């Protein structure tokens, strides 16, 4: 090998090493797949129904905003039926180096969740409650996202009364809307 070729290879390797060291991990990677429009089915304590949801980056890509509408027609489990709306905001807490999720429900509940990194895996995200507004903080909540593919996921919402284990409140099966 010629000396100039060797020097060029060494310089290129050094540049690649410096660039790789400067690259920061993407804090949004675990939830980036959510961005878009979704539809699906819901089942649980309020009955069975349909659900529509959107996720989009907002405010210079510092947050992901979620809009959700769950529709439960009248049924044995829920005689009058209901339409439930909530708004969610996912943020990245730089100090704690984790994703946070806040949900604002039309009943005036605000739920704050943190991603449980120990319980989460590449295809499974587990958000556990840290605090509730306008609800009893001795309860616990958990949102689990099982990622089937980039175009399909299952969300399970669980609640635990004080001193009791988690019980499934609702389960949503989403598919991406083209």
Q: Which sequence of strands runs across the widest sheet? A: 1-2-3-4-5-6-7-8-9-10
What is the CATH C-level name? Mainly Beta
CATH superfamily: Calycin beta-barrel core domain
- Number of DSSP-assigned strands: 10
**Silhouette:** elongated
Element order: H for helix, E for strand: HEEEEEEEEEE
Q: What's the CATH topology name? A: Lipocalin
Compute the number of structural domains. 1
SS-derived structural category: mainly beta
Mean pLDDT across residues: 92
Share of residues in helices: 10-25%
Structural summary, described in words:
This protein has 178 residues and is mainly β. The protein has a single domain (26-176), classed as Calycin beta-barrel core domain (Lipocalin). The protein is 11% helix and 54% strand. It is built from one helix and ten strands; from the N terminus they run αββββββββββ. The protein has one helix at residues 3-22; strands at residues 36-44, 47-58, 63-72, 82-93, 98-105, 110-115, 124-133, 140-149, 152-160, 167-176. The protein has a ten-stranded antiparallel beta barrel. The chain is elongated, with a radius of gyration of 21 Å.
Give a concise summary.
Helices cover 11% and strands 54% of the residues. By secondary structure, it is mainly beta.
Main traits of this protein?
single chain, 10-stranded antiparallel beta barrel, mainly beta, 11% helix, 178 residues, 10 strands, 1 helix, Lipocalin
């Amino acid at each position: 090998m010629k000396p100039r070729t060797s020097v060029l290879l060494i310089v290129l390797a050094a540049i690649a090493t410096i660039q790789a060291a400067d690259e920061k991990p993407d804090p949004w990677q675990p939830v980036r797949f959510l961005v878009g429009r979704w539809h699906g089915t819901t089942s649980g304590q309020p009955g069975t129904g349909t659900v529509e949801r959107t996720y989009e980056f907002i405010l210079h890509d510092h947050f992901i905003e979620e809009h959700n509408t769950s529709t439960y027609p009248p049924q044995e489990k829920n005689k009058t039926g209901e339409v439930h709306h909530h708004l969610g905001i996912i943020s990245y807490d730089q100090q704690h180096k984790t994703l946070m999720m806040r949900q604002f429900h039309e009943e005036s509940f605000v739920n704050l969740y943190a991603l449980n990194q120990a319980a989460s895996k590449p295809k499974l995200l587990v958000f556990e409650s840290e605090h509730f507004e306008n609800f009893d903080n001795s309860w616990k909540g958990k949102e689990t996202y099982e990622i089937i593919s980039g175009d399909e996921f299952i969300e399970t919402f669980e609640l635990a009364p004080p001193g009791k284990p988690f019980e499934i409140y609702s389960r949503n099966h989403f598919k991406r809307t083209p």
